[in-house]
Amino acid sequence: MNTLMSLQLLGPLLFGLVLLATGFVSGRILERRHYQRIIEAETRPGQVMVFSERLPPPELKPPHTQLVMGSVVVSVDYFKRFIAALRLLVGGRLNSYESLIDRARREALLRLREEAAALGADRVFNIKFETAAIAGRGRENSVGSLEVLAYGTVLIPQH
Length: 159
Hints:
The protein has three helices and four strands; from the N terminus they run αββααββ. It has helices at 2-42, 78-90, 95-118, and strands at residues 49-50, 64-75, 123-135, 145-156. The longest helix is centred in the first third of the chain and has 41 residues, at 2-42.
């Protein structure tokens, strides 16, 4: 009888551990691939330069300016969400969410640069970021996925 009850309790526990391990491994692999792709794109030669200054220097008066944007939605895996929930019990930094925000900001900036390059520009000024949680807001202190929008003013040179 005790053996049967032990097996009935052990099954859900093992299933939960397998799900956590699967989430951890797949999340790490996908995050590593995403970072590799971001680093490759960021180190590619001929990148559009981005500046946080509101206005370009006076000698760079372009004939045309335009708003450019880059947006990305990134989701956190269940393992990181689980770790963050445990961390909320004791307080402190939520490292598991920091990499999520870092990847989202860098990817949004890459997409902004792609849009600027498609316009033939080489510089973007007044770069700003907006962040919004778009899923997982039903529960308090929960972040399922977030959107990061990067925008700025591109200087389009005269051709």
